[in-house]
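Narrative of activities, Objective 1.

The group set out to show that a structural description can be obtained from nothing but a protein's sequence at a throughput compatible with the screening campaign. Below is one input-output pair from the validation batch, recorded exactly as produced.
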Amino acid sequence: MSSEHYTPAVNPLPPVVVALVLFIIGIELAFTLGTRGLVGGPEAVGWRLHAIKSYSFSPEIFDVMIQNGRWPFEQVIRFVTYPFVSGSFTQAIFVCVFVLAMGKMVGEVFGGFPMLLIFVLSGAGGALVYALVLDPRYPLIGGFPPVYGLIGAFTWLLWRKLSVVGENQARAFQLIAVLMGIQLLFGLIFGGTSDWVADLGGFATGFLLSFFLAPGGWARIVGRIRRE
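Output recorded for this entry:
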């Protein structure tokens, strides 16, 4: 029987999504195995702490850069590197699951590079909101702010779809409302951190970027400006 017209039951993941997940989980495996002494020798025990010190987003360093008006590359790059430094293996796994789910849906519509751009810029946007709104003293690590950026892009897709069919567009924000509600509830019960502000900043960044990065998005914006 010929398999010439075979259609897979599940669409393959966009390559950029697979690359992101492998990168995140690869770094986390190095930290975990190093902590257990399985790779890297004695120094590997401190790999995670060293990475947090060197690559996390530090609000204090950000404040110093603003005050001095100097923006050294090795500090600015923290806006991009912190999502790849997880606090635990569990956190990295949850980030990867969300990247697989949201990245697939966003990547199939937007394309691989725009999806990656949303991920990276949403992480930076989340860190910026985290620093400006809270002025915290704790560094920001983990991939949830850029993951929420992908959720923002997915929400934008739902928002546009509901607009086309003439339904209530507020329904598109049900997912983020549920996720934020769960996160705040867990924070109240277990004494969680204020990282949810960065997550919300990442969501807003991803949603806004979608106006420009969605297929035909920039053309729609230019056309609207010309009409006005």
